């Protein structure tokens, strides 16, 4: 009895039907403590193994056994793993649930080697395949191993296991346990749906369904992060000094007096210890102790299609979202606290070393590092008007495509004419080509080939006749044979500028206000289907007109019009349900491009509007031009160690995107949460930091560390869907209580848990109660949908007369993906974690009788009536508040103590915050509810 968990012992005592568990276990020679038995019963009630009632009567320390409870009692695994398998059966992913459950029950499937933590971490990232889930990593490893067995590749198992970080003996145990579990499940008729009746799920849907099952199985082991606002986003860009946090990490401890530029190569060597040597690393400084290390996708100095981190074209799916995998690995390396050492010269000797090697100079007595520009800044192409008329030359995805403006087409023709004259070209050998070099390369135009300007982005000597190039005037890449490449004659000019120094004629663009949905693209990347639909609508080489909202860091934020129909594509893609609309404030980094913060985008937009109003030309400043021409600082080999004067210890690498976790349960509400160091999520970065709603993470179990922190084990990052935390909690909780705002017009939070003892406010299981603020608009339609799903699950798991297991209704699993609603303001109730706190009249309760006579594992939730949004007098007051916000935007001035949006009950402290707020979909939806009509100011 002591070899099993107390919850399992309680269930087995129920099977023998000799009375309440406390009575049966009290007969043991060494009985458990009554308090432990009580807690075990509460755990089982929370997980659905026991009902709250015995023969229809409420009993605190006992309950009738459910179908889930019977499965739990018969399986040789933890009760939460048993619940995982039953929910997997309910949602038609029982095979995957059994494999994951068996792998969780066998410790040490993945190898853990001392001093090889970076290799282990990289291997786990690969197994997780961008899903952010330790459980899916286990599933993937098992499937790959079984495929090797099926293909009779067992003779190299040990070599494969060592390379892939698998403990082969543990994997054999998982295989045996899967067989044992399936054998026992056959008694309950739990098995996969036959093929003719099984619904077809693609990879994205299956991954989401699995994560929903994880949430249901391990409720309430939830944690949240990413509760951002405009101020925290500003702080992110302040920490990186305006650099893109999605591809930048920070080292600290190198004072500017030591001239950090001397040690660029030494700093790069630190990162090449755990990254591929082909990774492009830029090291920059800002006259502080910080060192900024920026990564560019491998093989691409130009951000080619093959290096575009937002599409399915990429083979590497190690991480999801917009943050580069190199950032994750760098932060992991910083967590290991290896103590980074850097040998440096004294400041005076450092200056002399730089001057002697010709990489620095003194100008008017001031020491300056030399810079060089490969492009002529006087010929930079950018949208001088608020629109671009031109031709779509290349399309990667909806956040990366290229347009050749009509006024630049003549220059491109002139360059092409020059390059297709044999007198201006020279033959070249492969060993002469270096990455970054400008060449002439053949490009297809209809049925003809013409030489165009291109930059070498990869020259792999393992392929003697192949070179990858990027056509800078069109935006596409190509793998070409050496016969298609020529050197450009030195001194060749076009428009009084060297052809090699003339900036690209095409403009890189991205569609504004849209991003991939978490449902259609589980890794946050554009799907091939979405890209295909776009190119079918607007094929390459079509004439387009792009309305420019802003131009920042060389990228134009646009909406596209095509042909004569003035089609705005963000609306089109919303109809296709492949994208989610972003607020006008969410323009900054959604890709691997280096883009500044929101304030830069808004500032550029305001300047464009002012120039258009005053009929002044729009001209880029030097900072914006630098972002396009990218001047390079001279590099030099670091001083030899034998002449260095001292050794500095660098701290990091770190990232400002590192997420802070916290739990919403009562027992964990005041404790710090950390993820266990061997988890694939041990580096948790908020890769959608401009999305201000909470993100969610699920752990299989939580332990308390020696310092009082909570350690989360076997974690899974949930899809980035607004309100998912609240919806999953409502779907899988034993019961819930809704809290309304002071006007009784909307729900602001829910309290989930086992509820209170009948007729009292005393909670039954206070430690696991969760107070969840609502960041979605939850109404009665949503609650009805949740109740339908709970009813379907209860019906599926209800033991009827003569049945060992209920039959599965195949449509139930689709309910979950249909009711994600708009964002709404989060609020906490007056008294968190208190049941029956709302003074509600019986007529205000929307209560539904249990159709299974109290035997439902997931009973209906009782909702409350909501009053109309606003009276006529309130509507007038809200309209006045909205008008005030738009007046603040028009005069670009705000009072010292800020302003309050009465419609959303939100305080705004600056003009930029006001501008962002009025463009949020939440605010605009509420404007529509009160009938507010915008006026021109």
Automatic annotation (TrEMBL):
InterPro entries documented for this protein: Helicase-assoc_dom (IPR007502), Tudor (IPR002999)
Hydrolase in keyword set: yes
Pfam families, alphabetized: TUDOR
Source organism superkingdom: Eukaryota
Record's keyword terms, sorted: Cytoplasm, Hydrolase
Gene3D superfamilies: 1.20.120.1080, 2.30.30.140
Protein's organism: Phlebotomus papatasi (Sandfly)
Membrane among keywords: no
SUPFAM superfamilies: Tudor/PWWP/MBT
Name assigned to this protein: Uncharacterized protein
């Amino acid at each position: 009895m002591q070899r099993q968990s107390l919850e399992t012992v309680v269930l087995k005592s129920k099977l023998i039907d000799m009375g309440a568990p406390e009575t049966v276990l009290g007969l043991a020679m060494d009985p458990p403590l009554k308090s432990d038995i009580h807690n075990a019963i509460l755990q089982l009630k929370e997980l659905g193994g026991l009902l709250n009632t015995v023969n229809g009567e409420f009993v605190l320390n006992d309950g009738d056994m459910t179908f889930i409870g019977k499965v739990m009692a018969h399986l040789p695994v933890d009760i939460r793993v048993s619940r995982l398998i039953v929910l997997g059966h309910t949602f038609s992913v029982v095979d995957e649930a059994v494999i994951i459950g068996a792998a969780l029950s066998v410790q040490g499937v993945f190898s853990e080697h001392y001093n090889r933590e970076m290799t282990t971490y990289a291997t786990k990232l690969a197994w997780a395949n961008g899903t952010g889930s330790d459980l899916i990593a286990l599933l993937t490893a098992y499937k790959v191993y079984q495929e090797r067995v099926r293909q009779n590749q067992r003779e190299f198992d040990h070599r494969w296991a060592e390379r892939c970080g698998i403990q082969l003996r543990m994997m054999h145990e998982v295989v045996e346990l899967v067989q044992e579990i399936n054998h026992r499940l056959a008694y309950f008729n739990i098995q996969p749906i036959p093929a003719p009746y099984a619904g077809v799920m693609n990879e994205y849907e299956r991954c989401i369904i699995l994560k929903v099952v994880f949430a249901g199985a391990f409720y309430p082991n939830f944690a949240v992060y990413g509760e951002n606002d405009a101020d925290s986003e500003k702080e992110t860009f302040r920490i990186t000094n305006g650099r893109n946090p999605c591809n930048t990490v920070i080292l600290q401890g190198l004072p500017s007096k030591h001239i950090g530029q001397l040690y660029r190569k030494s700093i790069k060597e630190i990162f090449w210890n755990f990254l591929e040597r082909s990774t492009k690393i830029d090291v920059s400084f800002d006259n502080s102790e910080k060192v900024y290390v920026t990564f560019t996708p491998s093989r691409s100095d130009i951000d080619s299609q093959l290096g575009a981190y937002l599409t399915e074209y990429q083979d590497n799916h190690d991480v999801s979202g917009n943050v580069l995998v190199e950032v994750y690995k760098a932060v992991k390396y910083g967590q290991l606290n290896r103590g980074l050492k850097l040998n440096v010269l004294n400041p005076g000797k450092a200056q002399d070393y730089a001057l002697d090697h010709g990489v620095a100079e003194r100008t008017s007595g001031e020491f300056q590092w030399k810079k060089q520009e490969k492009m002529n800044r006087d010929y930079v192409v950018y949208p001088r008007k608020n629109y671009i008329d031109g031709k779509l030359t290349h399309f990667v995805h909806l956040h990366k495509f290229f347009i050749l403006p009509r006024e630049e087409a003549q220059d491109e023709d002139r360059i092409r004419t020059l390059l297709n004259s044999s007198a201006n070209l020279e033959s070249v050998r492969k060993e002469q080509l270096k990455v970054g070099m400008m060449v002439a390369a053949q490009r297809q135009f209809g049925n003809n080939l013409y030489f165009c300007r291109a930059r070498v982005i990869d020259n792999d000597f393992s392929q003697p006749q192949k070179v990858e190039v990027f056509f800078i005037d069109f935006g596409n890449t190509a793998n070409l044979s050496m016969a298609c490449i020529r050197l450009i004659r030195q001194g060749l000019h076009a428009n009084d500028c060297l052809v090699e120094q003339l900036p690209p004629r095409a403009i890189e663009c991205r569609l504004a206000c849209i991003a991939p949905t978490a449902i259609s693209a589980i890794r946050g990347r554009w799907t091939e289907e979405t890209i295909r639909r776009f190119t079918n609508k607007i094929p390459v080489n079509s004439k387009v007109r792009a309305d420019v909202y802003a131009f920042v860091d060389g990228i134009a934020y646009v909406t596209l019009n095509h042909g004569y129909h003035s089609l705005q594509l963000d609306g089109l893609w919303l109809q296709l349900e492949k994208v989610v609309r972003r607020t006008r404030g969410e323009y900054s980094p959604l890709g691997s491009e280096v883009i500044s913060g929101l304030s830069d985008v808004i500032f550029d937009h305001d300047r464009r509007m002012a120039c258009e109003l005053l009929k002044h030309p729009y001209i880029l400043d030097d900072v914006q031009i630098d972002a396009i021409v990218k001047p390079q600082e001279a590099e030099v080999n670091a001083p030899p160690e034998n002449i260095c004067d001292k050794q500095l210890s660098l701290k990091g690498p770190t990232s400002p995107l590192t997420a802070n976790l916290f739990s919403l349960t009562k027992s964990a509400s005041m404790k710090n949460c950390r993820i266990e160091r061997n988890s694939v999520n041990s580096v948790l970065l908020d890769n959608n930091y401009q999305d201000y709603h909470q993100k969610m993470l699920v752990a299989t179990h939580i332990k308390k560390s020696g310092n009082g922190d909570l350690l989360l084990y076997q974690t899974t990052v949930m899809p980035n869907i607004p309100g998912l935390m609240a919806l999953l909690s409502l779907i899988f909780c034993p019961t819930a209580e809704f809290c309304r705002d002071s006007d009784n017009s909307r729900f602001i939070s829910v309290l989930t848990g086992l509820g209170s003892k009948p007729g009292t406010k005393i909670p039954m299981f206070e430690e696991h109660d969760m107070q969840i603020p609502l960041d979605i608009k939850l109404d009665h339609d949503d609650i009805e949908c949740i109740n339908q799903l709970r009813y379907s699950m209860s019906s599926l798991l209800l033991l009827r007369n003569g049945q060992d297991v209920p039959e599965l209704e195949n449509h139930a699993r689709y309910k979950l993906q249909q009711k994600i609603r708009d964002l709404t303001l989060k609020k906490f109730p007056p008294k968190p974690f208190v049941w029956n706190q709302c003074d509600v009249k019986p007529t205000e309760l929307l209560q539904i009788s249990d159709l299974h006579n109290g035997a439902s594992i997931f009973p209906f939730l009782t909702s409350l009536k909501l009053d109309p949004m606003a009276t006529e007098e309130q509507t007038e007051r809200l309209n006045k508040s909205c008008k005030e916000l738009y007046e603040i935007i028009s005069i670009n001035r705000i009072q010292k103590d800020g302003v309050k949006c009465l419609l959303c009950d939100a305080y705004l402290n600056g003009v930029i915050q006001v501008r962002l707020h009025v463009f949020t979909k939440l605010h605009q939806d509420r404007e529509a509810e009160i009938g507010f009509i915008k006026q021109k100011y």
